[in-house]
Amino acid sequence: MLEIRDFHVKFNSRSREAVGGISFTIQDGEILGLVGESGSGKSVTAMSIAGLLPRRQCTYSGDILLDGQDLLHADRSVLRTLHGRRIGVVFQEPMSAMNPLLTVGEQVGEVLRVHTSLSKAERREKVLSAMADVELPEPEVLYGRYPHELSGGQLQRAMIAAAIIIEPSLLLLDEPTTALDVTIQAQILALLRRLNREKGISQLFISHNLAVVRKLCSRVAVMQRGLLVECGDTDDIFFHPSHPYTKNLIAAIPVREHRMQAAAGPFADAKEAGRAVSSPEAGRGAAPDSAVSSSEAGRGAALDSVIEVSSPSSAAGIPAANGTLSKGGE
Amino acid sequence: MKDACLYILKRLFLLLATMILVSFLTFLAFRLVSGDPVRTMLGTEATAEQVEALRQELGLSDPFLLRYVHWLKGFFSRDLGVSYSYRQPVWDLISGKLTLSLLLSLLSFALIVAISIPAAIASYRFTGPISGWPRTILNQLGMAVPPFFTGILFSWVFGITLRLFTPGDFPGFQTDALASFIHLFFAACCLAIPRIAMTIRMMRSSLISEMNKTYVLTAISRGNDRKTVLRRHVLKNALVPVITFLGQTLAELVGAGIVVEQVLGLPGLGRFLVTSITHRDYPVVQAIVVILAFWVVLSSLLADLISQAIDPRLRTAALAKGGTA
């Protein structure tokens, strides 16, 4: 349903391309994970699909096709008819993604106001049922509340309700769980999975957290420095990563047995993480091999520990990690 | 709703307290500065007996606090006392001048709001190739020109050359309403110009910073067009800081009007205040100062209430504070 072909973006203010020619597809009813460190171009890709690329400030080429319709070069008026109706977007920080001056109900129902001719009462009815659908408690009460009166998790649910209210075919999720705490994160992931299953909404889930992506997505695309380094089934990539960067990302997921050692990595800065990965114990513990052998419980622990994947940004960290990892992995 | 009423009551009480404090400080100030109204009134040749008799008559020989309490009582029963210099009730003396000054302030405030908000939006939306530096120069110029200079300029251009009004000769609304209004209008323009420039600048930068927020992306991603994004989402958010600024502007307009009243010859409160201070006409000064204080506090109260009506976060904060106090 969504096809991206040889997509390039370069911002006028930068010398390097933000996205350097990527191609991938999202099938009908699929959840694709897009993983990469900050600056890898994953958010730019998502914004381009959403039609939110600041076109005047960059040069771009390639194709982004939603059911055959070009999104990248489409006129703004064409994009407006797709926004909210065909494509829904959920951002990282629900608090800043909501207008602080409008009630939650008004914002959840905004797509209806823009795209339908429903009366106010009919819109309210739909909003309440959408809010119930995303498991918001007491929709009638929350309807009239303002964003600052809700918790982060509730707001993100409201954002999802707003994005799916007329069941778009594609939902773009730009790090929707990063700003939330672990339990809420797990609930949101469960909600997204249910929406995918029940309504058949395709999703592009962007994250720098491979553990979260693994919990949700059937396929994963890994981006680094504007390039797609790997793309395939989630399990394939987890068990047989081919690119050193992917291996490194997987290695940075803490698993239960080595949580103590690994815990130091994620919270420390990237350089320290790189050292932790290249050290023998950490390398062995977090290598893909042990991920294969780890039981459901072990994997669950890895996935539940929603600690950021700290990806070594220094190029030097990768070969070092590569050495230890390829021993364990192959 | 009950909380909101409580909050407004609390603010009104604060307003009253501020006015009482201001009136006391003015009372105190005149006790401390040199100069004697009785001497001013009677001239240098008055005998000691005459001076003493007038002091008794005006109640000036009473102790300080007693005099203040006496004045306060009068104030609450709408008796502002009698002017020493004019021997007339203060209220009769100042009411006309007060109306004129308030009209001047309100007219120039209306000009500020009516011009600067749309102009800021237009200036935000117009991003042509020459929009950069000419706009900045015009804006800086507007802010830099002092009202007294515009006053002189307007007197010459619109008054003397074009004969739209007669500088220094205000006809009064009873005599000639249209001519009075034109006179007042040019005075209001002088007062408004620098503040329009400031408000445009502020509103524009507020718009720019709001436009860069994520909720704008959300609004676009829901299919809103640019106009709706601006009107429904950004405008109100951008207005919140500007309203506080406008509240301060409204407060200082009455004070700033003194100079313009002087230059264009408007018989307003400002001019009268200055002469009353030189004559040590305490009752008049006292009344004017309290009215000005009332105006300042009222402006900020209005600005607060309006921003709270727009921004629910401020409402929550205000009610939370109101509840504990």
Structure description:
The complex is a heterodimer of chains A (330) and B (325). In chain A, 47% of the residues are buried. Chain A is α/β, with parallel strands linked by helices and 330 residues long. The two termini of chain A are 35 Å apart. Chain A has helices spanning 42-49, 76-82, 94-97, 104-108, 110-115, 120-133, 139-143, 152-164, 182-199, 210-216, 234-239, 244-251, 259-267, 270-278, 280-286, 288-293, 296-304, 317-329, and strands at residues 2-11, 19-26, 31-35, 58-66, 69-70, 87-90, 170-174, 202-207, 219-224, 227-233. In chain A, helix 14 (270-278) packs parallel to helix 18. Helices cover 47% and strands 19% of the residues of chain A. With 325 residues, chain B is an all-alpha fold. Chain B has a domain at 96-310: MetI-like (MetI-like fold), CATH 1.10.3720.10. Chain B is flat, with a radius of gyration of 24 Å. Chain B starts with a helix and ends with a helix. The interface between A and B is medium-sized, with 34 and 21 residues.
